[in-house]
Amino acid sequence: MIRREWEEAGTYLGAAITLFESLGLGGWLPVARLDEAELHAGQGRIDEALALVDETLVATEEFGHLRVPALLRRANLLADMNTDLSETAEAYRVAIESAQNQQAKYYELLATTSFARWLKSQGRATEVRAMLASIYNWFTEGFETLALKEAATLLHELA
Hints:
With about 160 residues, this protein is an all-alpha fold. The chain folds into two domains: about 1-60, no CATH class; about 65-159, Serine Threonine Protein Phosphatase 5, Tetratricopeptide repeat, CATH 1.25.40. About 75% of the residues lie in helices and about 0% in strands. The protein is built from eight helices and no strands. The protein has helices at about 5-20, 30-40, 45-60, 65-80, 85-100, 105-120, 130-140, 145-159.
C-alpha cells in the first residue's frame, strides 16, 4: 500500500472509532483497535501496533470471544519484531490455549498455523506438525476456506 492509501485507511478507521464511541457501541471498539494495530503494523510501526494490542487485551477481559484474535495478533507482532524466542513461543501457546478453552476451533486453527509457520522459520518445524495435523483433521468441511488451505499447504511443507 502506498503512503496515501495508508493515511486514507487511517482516516476511515478513525472515523469508525469515533462513530462507535459516539453511539455507545463499545463492543466494537476492540475490533476497531485490532484493525488499527494491523494498520500500524502494515506501516512498519510494530511498537505502536503492539501497544494497541496490549490495550485491547485489557479491554477485552469481558469479551472473551475477542481475546483470541488479540492474543494471536500479539504473538504475530512479537514474531515480526524478532522478540525473544521463548516469549514469542509462549505468546502463541497462550493464543492456542485460549482458543481451546473457548472451543473456538477456527481460531485454534489460525493460531496453530501461525505458530507452525513461525517455528518452521526458526528451523523447528517438526515440533508442531502433530499439533497442526490434529486441529486440521478436526474439520470435516470448509476446506475451500483460506485458513484451511493455508494449514493444508503448511502441513504438506512440514511432511
